[in-house]
Amino acid sequence: MAKDVMCEVNSCRYWAQDNKCSASSIFVASHNPREARKPAETDCRTFEAK
Questions:
Q1: Using CB atoms within 10 A of its CB, is residue 26 exposed (0-12), middle (13-18) or buried (19+)?
Q2: Residue-wise pLDDT tens for the chain (50 aa)?
Q3: How far apart are CA 17 and CA 38, in angstroms?
Q4: Which of 1, 27, 29, 44 has the most CB atoms around its CB within 10 Å?
Q5: Measuring CA to CA, which residue among 47, 50, 3 is closest to residue 29?
Q6: Torsion over CA of 18, 31, 29 and 17, rounded to 10 degrees?
Q7: Alpha-carbon distance 36 to 33, whole Å?
Q8: Which residue, 26, 20, 23, is CA-closest to 4?
C-alpha cells in the first residue's frame, strides 16, 4: 500500500501541503469498461471541491 498519495489538485478538500492527499482512503475509477491503460483513462472519485 502506498505510504503517501500525491495530489496536485489544490481545489480538492483533501489536498494538503506539499501536494499530499489527506483523505483516509481514496477511490480511483476507470473510464474504460475493461481496464485502464493510460492515466487519462482514470479519475479520482474521492475528489470533493473545497
A1: middle
A2: 668 899 999 999 999 999 999 999 999 999 888 889 999 999 999 999 99
A3: 27
A4: 44
A5: 47
A6: 10
A7: 8
A8: 20
Any idea where the domains of the chain sit in the sequence?
1-50
Spatial separation of the C-alpha atoms in residues 20 and 8, rounded to whole Å: 8
User: Cα dist. 49→2, 37, 39, 40, 45 in Å?
Assistant: 23, 27, 21, 20, 11
Separation between Cα atoms, residue 4 and residue 21, nearest integer Å = 8
Q: Model's pTM, two decimal places?
A: 0.79
